[in-house]
């Protein structure tokens, strides 16, 4: 039976809202039915809001994997630019699909025609699509800048707290800001508290909560960053700023942000632009300029007075801790225990336990950890690894020997011979079918069975290659660790707080904390330039009685897993 798949893509949020991808899908399905075929919903691969200039898209990745496994026979796409806006990427994908004997059907182009005229048409369409995208983006950018310099509100898509946005359709062709008096009164109070009464932002937030004033989204908890943004926004003195952000190279974060996809929709990140480059558009003012300037002066004075205490050496694991339960970051905190000495107690807690962040509701109930004890246990584990890197290899070999995985039947050379034999048989079978020596009913089950056998052999070959690569990676990891540790091995016990922090940030990727275990993920790639290849993970159990941590009971197991983005990952449970 012929397996049919379709691929559709839209790149902008506006296209998602207008549901243009549904029209693509429906048009493709109509064509599939017209061709006398059928399609399962499992084989509909849709990328919503992903740019065509980037090949890393979730649905496209799944589609390419399925094609590599020999699952797909025919692929329907609306047009070549839905596959990619770049001609070079189109050629890469079409060549990849062709290597797996997948027929690609474009609704406006017959990809089965392999002649110079058809190839020229495809090349021209790809280059025109790439040129069109660049031209549209440049015209759009320059057009918005020109409109902003003319004072048009049309370039702004939303209004901040205190205003209502009147779009150009409602405003007879010209967008505008309209003051919402109830919200504007809150803005005036906020600026007066900071600029005239010289209150802190924290006190202003408490005053808002005491007065039962809700946020724009109807919440009774005002976030500090929201208040800071409002106090620094020049729109309230009658000058809406345009061009505060610009796009640039994508920032690679240590971990994906909460509730966000690991594969970014855009291959760029947004950067702040200097205030001198902003374009100001006149809007109705809520406060006068003198009060706005007074607030800016007060914010600077608060910063100079250091309302936030100078803490110096604070948290050794800052920026490395992640909650295993909710994937949110752990942050540090201090409190004074109620005793005669008023001991300062430092701890790490999951940000999901802060109900004030989520409208009075805790999103996670993971326990907080004693900062001193956690830092000691993580640092001791890192020291053990640096003093004896070879233990990784010993435990790795032990795990391979104890593994219950079924042995691979055959050597690499014998499996390679089987692969060549099956590929030759498939080629001969296809030739026999094209020359009409065998019928379709006889050809389809035989070719499907042979492809399944070929796929099985290729999987066995991949297992052997992966095992060999893991051995090489392990040797590289050990040698890299040995080179790194030989320079610092004799001074590990006498390092300063700052040296410990630098080493931790250099070789530790993150520390995952669950209710009864911690999981240290090591960044053991090229330690001289913090590149990307390899990580290790170590699990350590602990007990929480009075904040003390349990000791290691010995290494029990090692298992590995291949990750596309992270290379080799090893986990050592202790």
From TrEMBL:
Residues 160-306 form the Recombinase domain. Residues 3-151 form the Resolvase/invertase-type recombinase catalytic domain. InterPro entries: DNA_bind_recomb_sf, DNA_bind_recombinase_dom, Recombinase_CS, Resolv_N, Resolvase-like_N_sf, SSR_resolvase, Zn_ribbon_recom_dom. One of its GO terms (biological process) is DNA integration. Keywords: DNA integration, DNA recombination, DNA-binding. PROSITE patterns: RECOMBINASE_DNA_BIND (PS51737), RECOMBINASES_1 (PS00397), RECOMBINASES_3 (PS51736). The active site is at 11 (o-(5'-phospho-dna)-serine intermediate). It holds the Pfam family Resolvase. This is DNA recombinase.
């Amino acid at each position: 039976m012929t397996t049919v798949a379709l691929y559709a893509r839209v790149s902008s949020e506006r296209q998602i809202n207008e549901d243009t991808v549904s029209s693509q899908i429906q048009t493709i399905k109509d064509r599939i039915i017209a061709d006398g075929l059928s399609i399962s919903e499992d084989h509909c691969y849709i990328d919503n809001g992903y740019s065509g200039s980037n090949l890393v898209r979730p649905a496209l990745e799944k589609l390419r994997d399925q094609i590599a496994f020999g699952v797909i026979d025919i692929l329907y796409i609306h047009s070549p630019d839905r596959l990619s806006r770049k001609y070079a990427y189109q050629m890469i994908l079409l060549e990849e699909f062709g290597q797996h004997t997948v027929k690609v059907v474009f609704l406006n182009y017959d990809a089965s025609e392999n002649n110079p005229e058809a190839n020229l048409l495809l090349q021209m369409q790809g280059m025109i699509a790439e040129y069109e995208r660049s031209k549209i983006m440049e015209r759009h950018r320059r057009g918005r800048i020109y409109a902003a310099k003319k004072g048009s509100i049309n370039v702004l898509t939303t209004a901040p707290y205190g205003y209502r946005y009147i779009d150009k359709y409602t405003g007879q062709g010209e967008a505008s800001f309209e003051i919402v008096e109830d919200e504007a009164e809150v803005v005036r109070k906020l600026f007066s508290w900071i600029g005239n009464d010289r209150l802190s932002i924290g006190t202003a937030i408490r005053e808002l909560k005491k007065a039962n004033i809700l946020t724009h989204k109807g919440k009774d908890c005002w976030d500090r960053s929201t208040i800071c943004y409002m106090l620094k926004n020049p729109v309230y003195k009658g000058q809406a700023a345009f061009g505060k952000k610009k796009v640039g190279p994508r920032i690679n974060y240590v971990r994906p942000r909460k509730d966000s996809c690991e594969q970014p929709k855009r291959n760029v990140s947004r950067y702040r632009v200097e205030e001198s480059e902003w374009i100001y558009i006149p809007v109705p003012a809520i406060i006068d300029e003198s009060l706005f300037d007074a607030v800016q002066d007060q914010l600077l004075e608060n910063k100079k007075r250091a309302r936030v205490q100078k803490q110096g050496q604070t948290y050794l694991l800052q920026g490395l801790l992640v909650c295993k339960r909710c994937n949110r970051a752990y942050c540090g905190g201090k409190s004074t225990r109620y005793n005669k000495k008023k001991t300062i107690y430092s701890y790490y807690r999951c940000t999901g336990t802060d109900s004030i962040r989520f409208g009075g509701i805790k999103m996670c109930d993971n326990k907080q950890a004693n900062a001193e004890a956690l830092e000691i246990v993580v640092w001791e584990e890192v020291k053990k690894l640096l003093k004896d890197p070879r233990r990784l290899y010993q435990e790795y070999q032990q795990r391979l020997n104890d593994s219950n995985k079924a042995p691979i039947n055959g050597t690499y050379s014998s499996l390679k011979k089987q692969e060549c034999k099956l590929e030759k048989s498939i080629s001969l079978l296809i030739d026999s079918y094209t020359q009409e020596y065998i019928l379709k009913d006889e050809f389809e089950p035989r070719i499907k069975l042979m492809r399944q056998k070929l796929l099985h052999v290729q999987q066995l070959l991949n297992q052997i290659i992966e095992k060999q690569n893991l051995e090489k990676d392990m040797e590289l990891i050990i040698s890299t660790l040995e080179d790194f540790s030989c320079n610092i091995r004799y001074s590990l016990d006498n390092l300063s707080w700052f040296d410990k922090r630098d080493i931790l940030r250099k070789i530790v990727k993150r520390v995952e904390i669950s209710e009864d275990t911690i999981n240290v993920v090591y960044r053991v790639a090229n330690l001289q330039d913090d590149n990307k290849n390899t990580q290790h993970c170590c699990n350590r159990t602990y007990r929480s009685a009075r904040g003390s941590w349990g000791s290691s009971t010995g290494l029990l197991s090692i298992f590995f897993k291949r990750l596309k983005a992270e290379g080799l990952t090893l986990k050592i449970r202790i």
